[in-house]
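Moderator note: this is an archived Q&A kept for reference. The question asked for a predicted structure of one protein chain; the sequence and the answer are reproduced below.
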Amino acid sequence: MSFVPPELVLCILEHGYYTSLHTPNYALLKAAALVCKTWSGPAQTLLFRCAAKLEPHNIPKFRAAILPSAGRGKALGECIRILEISIGGTPNGGCSPDDFVIILQACPQLYELALSITGIHEFEEETLKKLRDVGRKLKALKLVQCGLQSPILFQLLKIWNNIQFLKIEKEIAAWPWRTAATPVLRRNTDAEELAHRPGAEVCLYELALSRFPTSDVLTWLLESSADSLRILELRDIPGLAHQPILSLHAPRLRSLRLSHYNIHSASLLRMCTALEELIIYHVPTHCPLAPDLPPTIEHLSFRNPNHIYRNTLQPIIEAVNALPSLKILTCDRNAEQLVGDYEILKAKCRMKGAEVIVSDMPFWVYEDPVKVHRFPRTSSVSNFDAMF
């Protein structure tokens, strides 16, 4: 095994890099790193590519491993492209803001950062100055946890205006323009005053929202993204107040992902006149889907999860009939259980020359944050080169 060229070793390990849930196969990579010296380097490169779920109990070991003073610390730190970390106080200790800065300094090629923040309301100015320098190569940010009225999201987007992929998994009720004279949460602000407030400078390619922020915050987030936003994921129902804001971006969207489909979602869908991909996380039965579909859609994906299981695929069959450009239909295995409808659905796709893909991927698993040539986008080792 020691005579296998390192390039071939890397190809072998990349082939087994993902588990069935598209998470890194750490068990395989750890075992491969112990085979011999020829395997150790490539295996460690992939093992440290995604540093996931760093929490108080394992952060000290991780930090020690990647510090430049460690034997291979600098090399391992440069391997890291994805970092998932919890910072702030916990009963068992935690990662302080200073520790967080040190870790980011040791990861100069970091591309994607997932943050869970507890016990910290905001970053101090000195910390923000240090974070500004160490986050220059970041392209993707996922905010998993923070306080409801914490301004940390706004602080980070102001110093990291290079962010192109943004996922917000918590409700945000803070005020983007907070100053000493402006409270964190302010209501009934005059529209003319808002118009003169500076918006975010980030030019987002993708935005995923688990909960809708206020219309003022959404306006702030998308201020500079009118020409760049191509992928929008909504796991909450868009309200009437959000429609005018989203309407500015809808005609340029290439992909729309919806957890709920109702009259408000249908209204947004009608505005997406250049859409190439639609993903819905259930089978809509209360609101017709087919009449509102843009004919440009090439990839339609749906789920039929157990918690809102539907005993019919008729809305999807009608949707396939309404899509002249459809190339790929993705569904889950629950669709196969509806044998009669599923056979009709497959027959409709065959007539159109559309491929049917059955996927077991849970809806909460995000894809790689990379720009898309053709949908569907996935998590794949083929995206590694794009994550720089």
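Archived answer notes: Residues 180-185 have pLDDT under 50 and may be disordered.
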